[in-house]
Design a protein that fits this description.
Layout (H helix, E strand, L loop, with lengths): L6 E5 L6 H16 L3 E4 L5 H11 L3 E5 L13 H10 E4 L12 H11 L3 E4 L7 H11 L3 E5 L9 H8 L4 E2 L2 H8 L5
Parallel strand pairs: 1-2, 1-5, 2-3, 3-4, 5-6, 6-7
Helix pairs in contact: 1-2, 1-7, 2-3, 4-5
Length: 185
């Protein structure tokens, strides 16, 4: 995929609320439908929602893995993995056959943000893998947006923190398109 123009990372909790999952899926689908490349880590939760939304819009999505590119993790995402290969790419800096280890996931997050022009932080904890990706994105000079979610939810800490820090709030793909100055089809 070409990452030159419209590429967006979407990250967040492995255990989002139903609304958080639905919102991430909708935003990803909207952006992919406009020609954006959706980048995430193929983890459970928000990552799965992002990839699924992009694929449902017949868009392009890229999964950056914290294991070898030939290792499907989590295993329940086998069908998603195969669909991503058809409509985008599965990439990894780890050698084929490398099994996932906890220390590999924060390491891969810099690639997720590095491939993207903008990062949307979905539901997540204030000290989570998604927060590590946000910090990587900021160090890389990327725009960071916070997904609107149920502010009373325990998984709303990351978006709340980001909004309090001045990150724009995102409800839909149009918010990102307008904020980034991307033209709608």
């Amino acid at each position: 995929p070409c990452f030159d123009e419209m590429s967006c990372a979407i990250v967040g909790s492995r255990k989002p609320t139903k609304n958080g999952f639905s919102t991430a899926r909708s935003i990803a689908g909207g952006l992919a439908g406009e020609g954006g490349v959706i980048v995430s880590g193929m983890a459970r939760g928000i990552d799965t929602a992002a990839h699924t939304g992009a694929l449902e819009a017949n868009g392009v999505t890229v999964a950056v893995l914290g294991c070898g590119a030939d290792v499907i993790y989590p295993p329940e995402n086998r069908i998603l993995y195969e669909r991503i290969l058809e409509r985008g790419a599965v990439i990894s800096e780890f050698l084929p056959g490398t099994e996932p280890k906890p220390q590999f996931f924060p390491q891969r997050n810099r690639i997720v943000s590095g491939l993207s022009s903008v990062l949307i932080a979905g539901e997540g904890g204030e000290r989570s893998g998604a927060r590590i990706t946000v910090d990587d994105a900021l160090r890389q000079g990327r725009e960071v947006y916070a997904m609107i979610c149920d502010l009373k939810s325990p998984v709303a800490k990351l978006p709340l923190y980001l909004m309090d820090s001045g990150a724009p709030a995102v409800r839909n793909a149009a918010d990102v398109m307008n904020g980034m100055g991307w033209q709608m089809k």
